[in-house]
Specification:
Elements: H1 3-31, E1 36-37, E2 41-48, H2 62-81, H3 87-107, E3 110-116, H4 127-144
Antiparallel strand pairs: 1-2, 2-3
Length: about 150
């Protein structure tokens, strides 16, 4: 294993672990009973059986296994690229995805808690969802603007 491959693995591992640990600790606050209400944002507990906006909830138990296959596919793809600049955003995406899949096994659905209702009602989401969205935008930028990626 060369030095750049080792760096890629280290960055991926620590980013995935960090996002997973942060997200699971936030979620445990809500599973344990924390709630907070404001005029625009409520911090509540919701178990999402589907994906974004509860889509694909009809897949029930199959959804978590489909997501595991997707996570493995993304990991294999990122490793095969061998581009160090993809390691951190991929770690954000994979850490968030793994945390949400873990929820499906432990809680029967993804633990969501942030409910925006100021001006319009938005889906309830969590920290992992935010990290996944940040990662997707970051990875799209790296793909469509290759000069941003030097490795």
């Amino acid at each position: 294993m060369n030095r750049d491959t080792l760096k890629l693995w280290v960055i991926l591992f620590f980013t995935i672990a960090g996002i997973f640990i942060i997200d699971q600790n936030i979620k445990m606050l809500f599973v344990d009973g924390f709630r907070y209400y404001t005029e625009c944002i409520d911090l509540i507990l919701v178990y999402n059986k589907g994906v974004a906006f509860s889509m694909l909830a009809f897949l029930d138990e199959w959804l978590k296994y489909i997501q595991i296959v997707m996570v493995i596919g993304i990991l294999v793809y990122i490793i095969s690229l061998k581009k160090l600049c993809f390691a951190f955003p991929a770690g954000l995406l994979l850490g968030g995805a793994m945390s949400n899949v873990y929820d499906r096994f432990i809680h029967g659905g993804v633990v969501d808690m942030v409910y925006w209702h100021c001006g319009f009602n938005f889906a309830v989401f969590n920290f992992a969802d935010v990290m996944i969205n940040v990662a997707v935008v970051w990875l799209l930028l790296l793909n469509f603007k290759p000069h941003l990626c030097k490795s």
